Amino acid sequence: MLVQKYKIGGVAEETDSGSVQKKGFLGLSGTFTHAFVWETNKRSYSDNDPMSGFYSNIFADSTATFDSLSSRSLENTVRFDFTTDETRKFRLGGGAGIRNELWRFSQIVPTYSTPATGISTSYRSSNVLVGKLFNDVGDKFMWMADGELYLTGYRAGDFTLNGKISKTFQFKKGPATWNITGDMLNRQPSFWFSRWGSNNFEWSASMDKEFRIDVGTNFSFPARKTDLRFNYAIIDNYTDFNTLALPSQHSGGLSVAAIYAAKEFRLWKFHLASNLLLQKSSNPDVLDLPLASVRSAFFFEHLFRFKSTNGRLNTQFGAEVFYYTPYYPYAWMPATGRFYRQNTEKTGDYPYLNVFLNLKLQRTRFFIMYDHVNAGFMGYNYFMIPSYPQNTRMLRYGIAWTFYN
Question: Could you give the CA distance from residue 336 to residue 65 in angstroms, rounded to a whole number?
Answer without folding.
Answer: 12
